[in-house]
Amino acid sequence: MLRHAVAALALVAGTPTIAQDAATVVSGEAALAQDAAEVARVRGIDTAAALRLLRAQAASVAATEWVEGRYRDRLSGISIERDGTVAVLLTGQRPVADGEVRDGDIVVPIRFRTGAAATRTEMLDAIAKYQATIRAMLVRPPAMGVDARRGELVVLIGGGDAAGDTTALRRRIEDMTGVPVRIATTGRPDLDLAGEVVGGSRLIGPDPTTGRRYFCTTGYVVTDGVQTGVVTAAHCPDTLEHVARNGARTPLTFIGQWGWGFHDVQVNTSPAATLPLFHPDAARAVLRPVEAQRSRAGTRVGDMVCHRGESSGYSCAEVEMVDFAPSGDLCGGPCLPTWVAVAGPGCRGGDSGGPVFIGTTAVGILKGGSYRPDGSCVSYYYMSLDYLPDGWRLVRSTPSVPEDRDAVQPAAMSAGP
Question: pTM for the complete prediction?
């Protein structure tokens, strides 16, 4: 049975400038090379192949958005295979010719499969309409999501519920929703990543009820056009101090928190938080500029992303679902299926609020995850930067051109009707 974490608190990459002493700012090429080395280690391939994979991943973003627009009425899911091929699953039996996308010397195949029983829209509508009813069928409120590879609504149930007749449960849910359903077992429900009671962490603050001190990880520097600050998870303490590498502490001013439905984000300001930089490494010896932002729409199952947490350090892993609703009531009630789930093992308590990225492209901030009994991470999930609070935006080191637009344009893609 899986054991899930209990509460989450974290703040560290994208740190105020006072924390950036003796750190080296690296180029976008160097940043991508570092991620490629980690991807190579995780995938068991050579670094050159991993670098080609990450370049192909970026090159195919605009093309997959084009595919989604053209085949929206039939689209069940889009995913990235281990060799970088874009796999498109469609409803119906009318075939679509395979295609490819080119960006310089990069060629990304696009493969179409037909025969799915439901579209992505139909599965998301089923979650929206029947989530409360499905929760009421079970002892513990389940997590739910869309399996983009198989075209199924996935219901992730706890170990206690799994002791019953899951076949009958699946059929009941299928009959009710009208979409294909798969029941999977996760053990206890996901909970936010809890920070341990520690001193001397990168960002610490007291719990207003107990007075105990918790730590978090910063995400990115943001601005509303007047003030500049950092984001972290909404379930961190309101009163926070940033702790620099040299031990210096910077009090941060609490602005607000948004923690319901599709949000888990908090803004704290500081005059020192002005540079669009973040730490990707455990030692905080390196800084990366924020040069681009990737949307949730531009993120696919099978993409590789990396994150930095105050407890777990630095790691890269594969996106498992882009339409994920965590279990329990972690979002001021049931969560919406807007979270992105990523495979472990790189997460620990205290990582919440930390940056999710690839190279110098910002992707999201971490919310929570689940653990095995031995303490290893099964998976984590993050909030896309699409959902920053109204009026706040990412501070970037380059003009505000979405990373997705920098990828190969649809005109460079060839595909059948």
Answer: 0.87
